[in-house]
Amino acid sequence: MDAEAVRRAAIVLAAMHPRVRARVLAGLGAAMRGQLSPVMDEVVRRGWNGRAMAMAVLAPTPVADATGAAAEETMALSDHLEPTALACVLQAEGMGSDDFQLAMMPANLQRELQAALAARGPMPPQLREATRVAARALLGELKGRGEHAPH
Fold first, then answer.
1. Is 150 inside any structural domain?
2. Stretch 9-22: mean pLDDT
3. 83 and 120 assigned to the same domain
4. What per-residue confidence (pLDDT) applies to 71?
5. pLDDT > 70 fraction of the chain, expressed in percent and rounded
6. pLDDT tens-digit map of 78-137
7. Please, which residues bridge with residue 70 across strands?
8. CA separation for the pair 50, 65 (Å, rounded)
9. What is the 3-state secondary structure (H, E, C) of 100-126?
10. Which residues contact 23 (CB under 8 A, 6 or more apart)?
11. Which single residue of 14, 16, 77, 100 could bond 43 by disulfide (Cβ 3.0 to 4.6 Å)?
12. CB atoms < 10 A from the CB of 10, how many?
């Protein structure tokens, strides 16, 4: 199962009643349970195990992140930016090296982004806003050229 499918399944499973979740997990193979368990733990640790989050994950449209920009669109910039530049954009959007959304990235890019994010110091508010404006402009330009389709 790919990383995004594991993340989505973990959020839905974590929101289930414990007895229902136990029955569903019992019906899965050991390898799948092993893949889902640490992600479900992360979901619970972050408080994403509520019904509203599970319903949002199952919705056909992308869920907006806390900044109001679709996280899916921000992550789509990975096709157009070097990892260090993408790390700057992700930091401006409030992500850290341990952010759960990085699990949706390919493993090699995920490691590069985690290292780049961990190495970055605090971002001044003016730089944060300028970076976010530049990222939105790039997304708009890519959409205008037909080069952007969220993953």
1. no
2. 90
3. yes
4. 61
5. 87
6. 888 999 999 999 888 888 777 777 777 788 888 899 899 989 888 888 888 899 889 888
7. 64
8. 16
9. HHHHHCCHHHHHHHHHHHHHCCCCCHH
10. none
11. 14
12. 25
Residue 68's pLDDT band, with cuts at 50, 70 and 90, is: very low
116 and 92 within one domain: yes
pLDDT at 59 over 60: yes
Both 54 and 75 in a single domain?
Answer: no
In a domain, residue 151? The reply is no
Rounded CA separation 52/39 (Å): 18
Total-model pTM = 0.53
Residue 49 and residue 90 in one domain: no
Residue whose C-alpha is closest to residue 96's, from 123, 125, 64: 123
Q: Would you state the structure tokens that stand for residue 128, as one six-digit string?
A: 């944060």
Instruction: Give the amino acid at 44.
Output: V
Tokens in use for 71?
């996280």
Q: Tell me whether residue 66 is in a domain.
A: no
Tell whether 114 and 135 lie within a shared domain: yes
| Domain end marker among 58, 80, 103 | 58
State the Cα–Cα distance between residues 58 and 26, nearest whole angstrom.
Answer: 22
Q: Which of 52, 1, 68, 55 is nearest to 28 (CA)?
A: 1
Q: How many domains in the chain? A: 2
State residue 72's pLDDT score: 66
